[in-house]
Design goal:
The chain has 110 residues and is an all-alpha fold. The chain has one domain. Helix 1 runs antiparallel to helix 5 and helix 4 runs antiparallel to helix 5. The radius of gyration is 14 Å and the shape is globular. The two termini are 13 Å apart.
Length: 110
Amino acid sequence: MDKETLEALKGSIKKWERIIYENGQDRGVNNCPLCNLFYYQIPRCMECPVCKKTDRRKCKGTPYMDWFEYQEEFGRNIPNVIFDEESKELAQKELDFLKSLLPEREPTDE
């Protein structure tokens, strides 16, 4: 994983930490550092570490889809935030998934 991708991954992890611990919001691709880096590339998402892990684009096959569907079903008039224990659990699963993508070692300039 190159440094730019690692920084984006760490930024996405921080986004989910803010959602869980600081009442942050999920605005999908609009506030996801990984999406900012990979979503608009052609072909879409293919170099994203999420896509590389799942072999699926647009975060399909990840805990994010459960979070998104729960927000759609039960949080219609609420921005994508934690509003109950179920949404908190789903957000935590997404955070854990993203953390699992971190490399064991930091990339070097060499």
